[in-house]
Design a protein that fits this description.
This protein is mostly helical and 370 residues long. 62% of the residues lie in helices and 3% in strands. The N terminus is likely disordered.
Length: 370
Amino acid sequence: FPLAFVAVVGQILFFSLLAGWWGSARIVADVPAGHRHLAFVPGMSPSLQPEASIREAVEKLEGAPFAQALLDSSSQTLSAATAAIEPQAPELLFSGFAPAVLGCCALVASTVQLLNTSAEESSSSEGNRWNVRTASVFLVWASLIYYSFIFAPGFNPTGQLADKALIEKLLATPFDGTVSPLFVSVFNSLGIWPAIYAATLLPGSRNQSPVPALPFLGGSFFLGAFALSPYLALRQYRGAGQADRRSELDFITKNILESPLNGILLLAGGIYLALYALGNGDIGGASLTTAGIAWEGMQPLFRTQMLVHVSCVDFCVLWGFYGPVLLEDGRRRGRFIDWDGNDSLLFGICWLVPVLGPALWLTLRPQLDE
């Protein structure tokens, strides 16, 4: 715990200094004409076309009932609209790469665990947990929280109104094409990730110390890695020789989460969302071209709304953290121990392909001993 505390404090100080150096690189600007994102301006394309359409829209905002725009400090549009712009908050230079940056931090934390599995097993056999894992996961968790509430765009009353409207739309008619298909896929995948983690972690969760699994796994369905990370940091390792027998599992874990049918359903859902995103809303039209259009179409939302921005970061952190969980579950079932060719290939696919890989593991994994 002292090591974890020092790591968290160090991370906070690091980001504070970083904000001072780079905080003026971009600005979030409100157009006084109103208080909503361009996605909701009447007459604008709901899918939000990138820069060219934003510039065109800004020129027409004067008569619009409401609008909000993120303008880069080097943009010609900003120069033309300077009189109508009021700076609000700094944004880090790397904000556009935040999902990759924090996802890579989670990946590094996971790699450290994978390279020191023997230390995990040794600590577990002595009834302890490996403190390096605890510190590294807490470090990423602290970074995620600090970044999301300090530097993520849209953390203001205007952004909250826009996020509320977007959530209502996603819950009512998510696949009608009026919201960026790529974000729709990311948002719904955040409902699949917790189900994957539940099916992977609960078979080794009985009598966990010092914290139980269920509150954190339940919270992850609403808060993703924000809720799950403390459990990943504090739980005891339950690998080879330490697994519960199938007969000792609770009813839901034994009959639902352990069933290959659960993995098949999650895999089918993941495939549908992937095709929907890659086809930019057209399941049968997935291609590199439509994937590029979907990517560009999400950028204005990603750069101005906290819900979209943080959801993408959360997705990448959950992806990065899954490797050690997968390894532990595999070793409970006699896999990923000798690392023959098939084990290495299976592990690589099941970790490196987000959502689809883990769902494939739940479909193919061996059953626990009775």
